[in-house]
Amino acid sequence: MGTTTPPRTLAEALRARGDESLARLLRARPDLLNPVPNDITQLATRAGTRASVVRALEHLDRFALQTAEALAVAPDPAPYDTLLSLLTGDGLDDGEQRDDMGAAITAALPGALATLREQALVWGEDDRLRLVRTARELLAPSPQHPSPTGLGPTVAEATAGMSPGRLQEILAATDLPATHDPVSAVAALSALFTDRTRMAELLDTAPVEALSVLDRLVWGPPYGEVTPNPTPPVKWLRDRGLLLPVSTRTVVLPREAALHLRAGRAHRVPEPAPPAVAAAAERDPQAVDRAAAGQAFTALSTIEELLKLWDGGGPTILRAGGLSVRELKRAATALDVSEPIAAFWIELAYGAGLLASDGETDERYAPTPASDEWLDLPAEDRWTHLATAWLAATRTPGLVGGQDAKGRALSALGPELDRSAAPDVRRRVLTLFAELPPGTAPEAETLLRRLRWERPLRGSAPAAEGSDLRSRLALWTLNEAELLGITGRGALSAQARALLDEGEQTAAALLSPLLPDPLDHVLLQADLTAVAPGPLERPLADMLSVLADVESKGGATVYRFTPGSVRRALDAGQAAADLHAFLAAHSRTPVPQPLSYLIDDVARRHGHLRIGAASAYVRCDDEAVLNEILADRRSTGLRLRRLAPTVLAAQTDPGSLLEALRDMGYAPAAESAEGDVLITRAGARRTPPRTPPAPVPEGPPTPDDTLLGAAVRAIRAGDTAATVARKEPTDGPTSTGPAGALPRTTPAETLATVQAAAMTGSTVWIGYVNADGAASQRVIAPVRVEGGFVTAYDHTADEVRTYPLHRITGVAELAEEG
């Protein structure tokens, strides 16, 4: 066995990895796959780009990020022990006992380092750990970009460009031997600041005020402003190099001195372990499930009411998109909820594909055809549909009422509500719920602290929202989960656990026994009301909503019968006999006489007047009724005139004429051009078929195993083609070109080489240009050469392919391994 040579570059480190390790890298950083790199060198280059490194850093947990930050301020390369010391300290911090913390850091550091290695942010052996250059630039300190550790530049960096005379003055003030070599002077000063004993002796001579200045700078930011005539404490520090000039008015505490004052620690509070999520309350799991089921039923009722509210055509769409504030208030009033909660229900119905724009010239929101299919589902299946849509949605109702980066108001159903981090935060919050014992409600603050530990860096969010979007998303998730019945009394329900782990069918099966069975009856009362003691079967509820108005909701729903509501049922095509039969069939109490009289009275007058289009006209077989209308002062605005003894003409449209006569106490009916009564059916307006809004992904999607396997094979094959030793042509000068370039051979040489490879079963390296003009390198094993085509096994694609010979730029045999 030979000695393994340590990698000299990130590409070499990646090349030494196994296929499974490369697949894990591509799974953790899917942006590296778009497009699939040609070889390992291109993969390493792409992994070091700024955008990719920033995305990778944003997905690190707190301790892995602290480890990367410590490497950014460590020497490059840094031994493992140096990194460990930066995280644990040197144990000399004024006798403070940090044994437990040091043990936790020692135990957690290998895992954090493995994560950084896996994601190609760190490479090299333990004695030479290297943070990729882009990550070091992002995390290392500079005046424009202070380090997250709060450390400043090293002595060598801070004194770059300082005059030799000034360096001599600092050496003299610190009793260091004079030297005319600036490099030696900087090294001597650095050695002083890293020597615990000599540094302690120096600080013992410092004025108390100077130590106070250092205390303000030691944990960052390390920069301070000074006047042309600094105070004596600042002058004492500056003379001894403990404050080094950055500009004429700015000084900095050098890194070595700060680390001495910190007892060698890069971070004030290392966090090697995730904070625990504390329990706020422990409840009976069955009570939690029942409470969640009750809220789930309320959620279904609210969505059904919203669909019914917009059934005949909802509000118009703003020019910039979305719902106006006035329409949101109107919906909130109709649903009897606050405006933020109304925005949540509206966005939920929209995200589930139950509401959409109708696409007409006067564009409005309306229920979709899918809403009718949804209403026909059992209650438990309707709930799982809503909950699944909510989990995956990137639309964020909590933003409604706020402002975007340009100060414009964000409206419900507007175009600026997508936040790609929302699904990840929702699912992570519920996962943390699920890790607690059943019936346990977590404490919100500890939940937020855990989320901040898992993703300390800012995610993809507009700058105006700040860096704490994930915390806001988590708080909105807590509220929305309770509204939707995911949680009950603050704890995760059993049906929600099943939805997360086992799927919709299991969740629906657990929820079904907890939901009330729909009723097929109501209780009619003498005061022209009907009481529904529970949820009603859909046909009964639909008919009753047309025949009566909802007066109050709660455990029982109270409906009130009015002349207007009865007329609405008659307009929908029902006859008085149908209404009597309906009430008798669905009432557990006798039909009250006042209700029967009301139906008969409205039915007797219904359709007695007929409204049609001239501009509009009124006709009636009873001339006395028309005389009464003409004599009524309320009809003046209609500008009626008699055309015939039984016909009046009006200078208004039929709809306005209908409403005006109904307001005057009549019960007219609209008729068609043929004289037939027009029946107004409820819920006739639907949008064309619409698909639910697609979630906006947070970066590239995570690739599946099949894609990862193919990508790794392609990268390996491309790397082989780019790096394998190739034979030189036996005849004529070399034509393969420089390393990494496509091979170039004549058509005759190409044909002869691939024919020979097909006969011997050997593998060759070719350059190939496809029909789109894209050039690539491939390693193939030719099987057959005929008719101007070569059929070969392509190691890059792991399949047999056929290549036109005229598209092969050249071919080279692979050298035999020694």
Describe this structure in words.
This protein is α+β, with helices and mostly antiparallel strands. Helices cover 44% and strands 12% of the residues. It has a five-stranded mixed beta sheet with strand order 18-19-17-16-20, covered by helices on one side. A hairpin with a 7-residue loop joins strand 7 and strand 8.
Give structural attributes.
818 residues, alpha+beta, five-stranded antiparallel beta sheet, 33 helices
Concise description?
With 818 residues, the chain is α+β, with helices and mostly antiparallel strands.
Q: What profile does the largest beta sheet have?
A: 5 strands, mixed
Helix segment tally: 33
Number of distinct beta strands:
25
Helix content: 40-55%
Uncertain stretches of 5 or more adjacent residues: 459-464, 730-737
